[in-house]
Amino acid sequence: MSHSDRIRFRSPIVPWRHIRSDQLRAFHAITRPAFTLVEMLVATGATIAMVSLLGTIFHLSTNAVVVQRGRTENDQRVRLVETLLRTDLNGSPVDRTSGLTRQSRTFRVLIPYSANETRAPINPATGLPASPDDRRGYFCLSENNPHDDTDDVLALTVELPASSAERFCGRTAGLLPDVAGNYGPAAGNYWPNQPEFDDCLGSPNGAGSATAAEVSYFLRHGNLYRRVMLIRTPAAPSRPDDPVPENVAGAPLSTIAYGPSGTRNFWTDFDYSAIFDPAGVVSGVRFHGAIDLTATIVATTLLNPANRWGFDSTSAPGTSLGLPREFVNNGFIGRFTQAETSASNFGYPGRVDVACPNPMAGSTALLLSDGAVTAYSDGKRGGEDLLLSNVLSFDIKVWDPAASLGPDGAPGRAGVDDDGVNGIDDPGERGAWGSDDGDFVDLGNAAPYGFFCAANCRNFYFGPNRFDTWGPNVDVDGIVLEDNPPYLPVWAGPDGRPGIAGLDDPGSAPGIDEGSEMGTPGSDDFMPLIAIKISVRIYDASTDQVRDATQVYSLAAQP
Questions:
Q1: Closest to 274 measured CA to CA, from 351, 198, 345
Q2: Which one of 3, 122, 282, 345 is separated from 450 by 20 to 30 angstroms, measured CA to CA?
Q3: Of 408, 433, 407, nearest in space to 418 by CA
Q4: Which domain holds residue 238?
Q5: Does residue 413 sit within a domain?
Q6: Is the pLDDT of residue 11 over 60?
Q7: How many domains are there within the chain?
Q8: 493 occurs within a structural domain
Q9: Residue 518 domain-assigned?
Q10: What pLDDT digit, counting tens, does each position of 315-333 carry?
Q11: Nearest-5° angle of CA 4, CA 10, CA 14?
Q12: Which tens digits make up the pLDDT trace of 222-241?
């Protein structure tokens, strides 16, 4: 011990003024008390609380990022569906802003053909007769059960302008030989007029292209599908509207590999719309082409439902001929998927026999298991038509101008005799031109009023839960006379008078513009379908989030 330390401990009382600062610091270091147990517990608890709070904040922020990412992904997926729907449903082949051509539906003025139609109805948007160019192909909606939002189907034909650089693309295969057994011209192994060369690339590549297609949307087992079937656009310079593959002499190429004695499955090799045609030059497959969009007297026209993708073309009239195969024995399928149509025993459209019955026919017994048709389980093209998964509902509603009275509470325009019959504001004026009436409804609903309620269905063999643009010479129910479309709404039209205003229309009761003239051929009394509302609900399992997306799509044909 140093001398100074001995002085400090020997003298119990030392005046503060005599203690040096270093001695004072040493004294405090020796005499400072330790932490108590209570202080230690308080400090530890505070530390744990802070760590727990930081962990909670980190968890919440991380979860928020995950949820936001899930919402963003869901939004992107829904936007993809909405973009495809908007493109397919577009009714104007020319963009009015840019002047550029674009994809559009082929049936633009959605006034269905009436049975044995001889005079085109007036297009209310233009005041002129609807052009045949605006009523090609088809547009079809299936509501099925109005109380079920998972069994709706949208099917239509779409096209791209011939000048467009874009094309609908799909799988194809080469056809050899022709019906005479020849294997192509001397300069090569393939005849050029066939789907393999419609993409104009000049060499076999297993891919085909076309300017038109059948498109269908349907939901099954939580998966939303978009099936595209190409309508052949031959690249051959001669007979461009004839879809039959031919050699240079005009003789059909053989499709025997896909026929009754063949070994191949057609929709494994081709993404083309085709029909079973046993009466054709080459028995079996017949491709659809542009001629089937327009010619109403051609046996294979797509205006006739029996000739479309997913519809029954082989059953007897009045059984299921001309009806879509949307159900099997134990559930809804919408349409067959690409996985199913590429199964080895899916013989249609090449062969229809006892061993390979037509899957589109309602009499062919089929079963579902886990969302797949069990009879066609070995298909090799699964998922190629899948658009969106984890979908809870896909619901389509149509705009019905007569479904409600609107804000003024009166049929048509309040205080106006909109149709020229039965006085002012009578029930027949519901949905009159220029009124505030209307609402979005399910096809075939049970309401007492409306153009698209079940009570106004004209064809119960095909309806009442379907809308179809039809054709003028369709007979699928077995009755000699042509069939009516399921719905053909009639009203007084823009001129406010039944029939042709100011005329005593032929076939009506005596008098001018009286009630029996409603729906006179060539008049403006036929109402087009102008809008639909499509709602899609999807579920994201990673975030446990449900996303609802509803869009209204205008179907009005823009001049």
A1: 351
A2: 122
A3: 433
A4: 70-94+102-393+532-554
A5: no
A6: no
A7: 1
A8: no
A9: no
A10: 999 999 999 999 999 999 9
A11: 75
A12: 999 999 999 999 987 666 67
